What we know:
This protein is an alpha+beta fold.
Amino acid sequence: NSQGVRAAYYSLSFILQRAIASRLDVDPREIDIVDPVASDGKGTVILADEQINGSGFVVDMFENFGEYIERILNNKDDFFKEMLGSGHGEACDSSCYKCLSNYNNMPYHGLLDWRLGISLFRLMVDSKYKVGVDGDFSYPELRDWRKLAESLLQNLQRSFDMDAVLFNDLDLPYLKTGNGKYIIAIHPLWTSDNKNYILSRTIYKLGTSRENV
């Protein structure tokens, strides 16, 4: 139900739409994005051919899913190779007209975030992937996460004129407020419970309790 998780599902929908269009050399508008739905606490990405009688575009992804994994995550497609490149990551903090944004999906621009979409896709296809909760931020979609999180914390502090100071000396960036409370940045696809190893370790190193976070 969180905005970040919804953003991840919508972003992945448009990533898959673009992957199909790229592989089959068709207009992305030939593939419809159906609003993601939730069932039993899990999200579902739904795509459909734009033509009522079907053109077989979405079926191609179903039948050749392994190739789509290679195209999206393993530099087998120039579009995604550029998206996951360091140059694009430095210039685009969520979505731009070089990656997911276009004129036709303007109503979704506020939700689109290529990093979240790629994280969700990798999470679906790689059982070893932990979205950084294990401290591994070496993946292209996580490479700049700490810097982005620090920037968002700074914006939060300035926007509300908070009596707080930003620190980045531990596993996760955080704000320490004047009354001894902490605001710790976490990834939108993480939980905030005791199972979150990197968050629990940060709280432990702060020498505080969860009640103060």
